[in-house]
Amino acid sequence: MSHPLHVAVIWHQHQPLYKSPENGSSLVTSQQYRLPWVRLHGTKDYLDLVLLLEKYPKLHQTVNLVPSLILQIEDYVAGTAFDPYLTASLTSVEKLTREQKEFIVQHFFDANHHTLIDPHPRYAELYYQRQEQGQSWCLANWQLSDYGDLLAWHNLAWIDPLFWNDPEIAAWLAQGRNFSLGDRQRIYSKQRQILSQIIPQHRKMQKSGQLEVTTTPYTHPILPLLADTNAGRVAVPQMTLPKQRFQWVEDIPRHLQKSWDLYIDRFGQDPRGLWPSEQSVSPEILPYIIKQGFKWICSDEAVLGWSLKHFFHRDAAGNVQEPELLYRPYRLQTPAGEVAIVFRDHRLSDLIGFTYGSMPAKKAAADLVGHLQAIAKQQKESNDDQPWLVTIALDGENCWEFYPQDGKEFLETLYESLSNQSNIKLVTVSEFIEKHPPTATIPAAQLHSGSWVDGNFTTWIGDPVKNRAWDYLTAARQVLANHPEATEENNPAAWEALYAAEGSDWFWWFGEGHSSNQDAIFDQLFREHLYGIYKALNEPIPPYLHTPLEIHEARADHKPQGFIHPIIDGKGDEQDWDKAGRIEVGGARGTMHNSSTIQRLWYGVDHLNFYVRVDFKTGAVPGQDLPPDLHLLWYYPDRTMVNSSIPLAEVPDSAPLNYLFHHHLEVNLLSQSVQFRAAGDDHLWYPRATRAQVALGSCLEIAVPWADLQVPPDYPLRLILVSSDDGCFSGYVPENGLIPIDVP
């Protein structure tokens, strides 16, 4: 029997609890939110996503709404939530304090400027004044009307383009400048109006059968780590764990019951699916999920790979080999019963989340449909009597900030194309499982303990700062346990503060791995939630909770923190490279480094290209202060292939310069021209076509397509940069090794 290819798209909508505890410090009001992201993402990302889908009734999808997000949306709808951004927006410009003006200049451009600021001339005018003249200049020269316009545009730009045909919104967009306090008050009312439709629209579409709404443990905790922080050592046996072992498995059913009850109250039925926070699972948490009544959960292909002891290789086009293992639901068997589990295609999910936003919408949509058609062909050729289910699951809010018009054209093009594909059927997970119950089984004990990030928990535990946060949480949890009289009924503040502190987001931002310009606020919020536990119990506050867990300042050398999509124009846009890896060079030892002409290197990837940026000493001129030629040479560790030595004279016979390399890109800094070569027989180099992009301005930016290197996904390689003058070696960076790169 021939089956269509079934595809389950799951959008995960989540924000941590930005509201300070009701019984927090005297400086915090009960409805004071530290950050505005629930309100701003609420007007940009949650409602439009399902309204766009509603136009294509043949397409069914799943949306996960985290309880902590729902509660915060409801606070804003009720008009009881105020964040510093909103407070400033609703303040008369004549009454703005110096401190508020500094805050506005610093934070009211917190957005991807390519997509949310540049399209609006007045907003862009103010942004580039700040970028080019500096904050001090703005504070000294801006008029009150400049502040009024910035306050308005910060809120307008986050309203989704789907709503721009609203007469009021259209009038504001056309107005452009000279916004009054009354205008800003009406913009806020429009925000609340959009927010008020989010939950009813999801409920309506679930009732019609086009949507399945799922839930997550109450405040998005990582359940395996609540059960036992030693779970971190399953994937990383040598992990350094916190000093105190956190082992409060009884908190798991509390989180599940609260999310279950809230869901029934808002949606009028039992939830069927559970998105485990961070797609993190372990054998220990399954009985609680089953006992609560959930029918299915989801996780990542890395977790499936670890569970089956199978690594999912991909071909050169990025399609999974042995797809029949990934594209099917499994049954998890436990003594408590069983639950179904689906595993997402990590690469397809990442393409939507991190790469398609940098491509033309029609090309990106065609690429995704092309991948699905290739899988459909694999299914047809497999003669498998069981239908396949491709699961695409990802964050449903943050990615759209990198798409033009918030992804509207991409989604409309994609949905139109999928509606016309007879051999591809978009389904909710529940409707697929009900019609095609899983036939493959994974014994509970065999399920790997891991998350969507590399199949482990290192993003949330193991780093010294993350571990210290766990120790703080463990101490507070023990204090609560020492008060058996403090129940959720008679002391809800203590328990709500605990649940908030157990959320995954704080640990995400602590220590190495991720950083933002709001790290200090996340640090403060975590400590405030812990503070709330002690306060509600009338216990003394440990002195360490008054001190940040770490010093929040820009780090020097660090690894990439995510995908990047820089525009190659030689300008080194700070937002384009903020998630790139960074290597400080200036001031280091070595031939090339003594003069510090090269200050630092930046590097990163997406699914299309490898990117590198070289920052030079201010005023450095190619051919005078630095050699005219720069060579990128790729080294492939543990791979058998034809290689050649660096094609320059006077190259020192020392590692890594005496390694043999396979690809070579030569960049002439004077002409900004490139030559690309691949190693051949007899240690010779042979010219190859390239679509590499190079631009030299305030820095050197280079993009090299993966297609030039012809390496498949999940492939490790290393890079060195060598300078030369008239064919003779001059120097190299980085000094102490090679730049590590993994093809996504």
| Beta strand count | 22
Number of helices: 26
Radius of gyration: 27 Å
Uncertain stretches: 23-30, 587-595
Structural commentary:
It is a single chain. The chain has 744 residues and is an alpha/beta fold. It is built from 26 helices and 22 strands. Strands 14, 15, 16, 17, 20, 21 and 22 form a 7-stranded antiparallel beta sheet that branches. α1 (37-54) links the parallel β1 (5-13) and β2. The model is unreliable at 23-30 and 587-595 (pLDDT under 50).
SSE inventory with pairings:
Elements: E1 5-13, H1 37-54, E2 61-65, H2 67-78, H3 84-89, H4 98-107, H5 113-117, H6 121-133, H7 135-141, H8 144-156, H9 167-175, H10 181-195, H11 198-208, E3 211-214, H12 223-227, H13 232-235, H14 251-267, E4 273-274, H15 286-292, E5 296-300, H16 301-308, H17 323-326, E6 330-334, E7 337-344, H18 346-355, H19 361-382, E8 389-395, H20 408-419, E9 424-426, H21 429-435, E10 440-443, H22 464-481, H23 492-501, H24 505-509, H25 519-536, E11 581-584, E12 598-605, E13 609-616, E14 629-635, E15 663-668, E16 673-679, E17 685-688, E18 693-696, E19 700-705, H26 706-709, E20 716-725, E21 728-733, E22 739-742
Parallel strand pairs: 1-2, 1-8, 1-9, 2-3, 4-5, 5-7, 6-10
Antiparallel strand pairs: 6-7, 11-12, 12-13, 13-19, 14-15, 14-20, 15-16, 16-17, 18-19, 20-21, 20-22
